[in-house]
Amino acid sequence: MKRGYPELILNFNTNSPGLEGSSNSQELEGTRIKSDLPFFDLSVIVAATDNFSSSNKLGQGGFGPVYKGRLFNGKDIAVKRLSKNSSQGIEEFKNEVMLIAKLQHRNLVRLLGCCIQEEEKMLMYEYMPNKSLDSFLFEQNKNAFLDWKKRFEIIVGIARGILYLHQDSIMRIIHRDLKASNVLLDADMNPKISDFGMARIFGGNQIQGNTNRVVGTYGYMSPEYAMNGLFSVKSDVFSFGVLVLEIISGKRNNGCNSKDPYLNLIGHVWELWKAGRVLDVVDSAMGDSYPSHQVLRGVHVGLLCVQESASDRPTMSDVVVMLGSETALHPPKQPAFIMKEAPSTPDSSTAGTGLYSVDEETITVLEAR
């Protein structure tokens, strides 16, 4: 592994505003990006992954495949290898190199270095032995490992990680793709937020951004982002609220099996809230071994985070306080997107540039109004 290189010479196009992508053929123009990341030699990564053996493959995303590797010193790593035909990978690679190297928090996955050699572009991260949160929440043979104490710790850990991005890091960052498969679990089941390929930086007094190309995972996107391409810290708050309800219920937002087949998880929880039967949503894998007042508060916070209007949602600093105290909370209004049907408008089309699968989740590309 080589260290001390002051700059990465990457072939990227900076004509696009922010970090929005275009076609690879237009992006491959020389751009110089400052980074303090260590460089890994390609031969080191080939040896660590046993020449990218299929037995070491951990998963596949829009960026490309992810492999487990073991360095010569015995340290395990995760290697994200940019696919040569990836439509989103070039911009994600650029984004992660620019962002994650500057971030340090116990609830964020740590980027260890990169490899840019020959035709290869790869990112190396700390290895998370328990993989992603969704593999525990939504698999019957694993969800029993998550008792309430651990679920609550995961909720609080995710909240602290997002708060760091929004308020406490050297940059103000909007993640834009928070979901269960982007929360990884270390050996002690501590949550770490990953995948900053779609993240955006806010500068100065900026409180909101917009894009005409909405890229995200339906079920986690806030209404203002999904419908109009508007994003802010409150967009991440909405996604966090969905995560909270999924962690408590053990059900996917888009796959909730309630008596009403048209309701998603948010809608199902809202109906139970109005009926005074909130505890009915609790994952049966937890049995009865949970403090009902804490679960009720968790659901309450989750519903406040998924409010229709961004102004009605709390900030992440508010959320951390709410989760750590017993102060009275104001009642939630009817939340957004309570039905399973995807949002549509006369000016938008689902899958404007196609649908693709990432970690068994559907990523939707919408043309915003």
Q: From the coordinates shown, what is the CATH architecture of the largest domain?
A: Orthogonal Bundle
Spans where pLDDT lies below 50 across 5 or more residues: 3-31, 343-364
CATH classification, class level of the largest domain: Mainly Alpha
Q: In terms of structural class, how would the helical and strand content be classed? A: alpha+beta
How many beta-strand elements? 16
CATH-defined fold name of the largest domain:
Transferase(Phosphotransferase), domain 1
Widest β-sheet, arrangement of strands: 3-4-5-7-6
Report on this structure:
- The chain has 369 residues and is α+β, with helices and mostly antiparallel strands.
- It folds into 2 domains: 7-126, Phosphorylase Kinase, domain 1 (2-Layer Sandwich), CATH 3.30.200.20; 133-367, Transferase(Phosphotransferase), domain 1, CATH 1.10.510.
- Helix content is 28%, strand content 20%.
- It contains 10 helices and 16 strands.
- It has helices at 24-27, 42-48, 89-99, 133-137, 148-168, 223-228, 233-249, 265-275, 292-305, 316-323, and strands spanning 7-11, 30-34, 57-60, 65-70, 76-81, 111-117, 120-126, 172-174, 183-185, 191-193, 200-202, 209-210, 213-217, 230-231, 355-358, 361-367.
- A hairpin with a 4-residue loop joins strand 3 (57-60) and strand 4.
- The model is unreliable at 3-31 and 343-364 (pLDDT under 50).
List its salient traits.
Transferase(Phosphotransferase), domain 1, five-stranded antiparallel sheet, 10 helices, disordered N terminus, alpha+beta, 369 residues, 2 domains, Phosphorylase Kinase, domain 1, three-stranded antiparallel sheet, 28% helix, globular, single chain
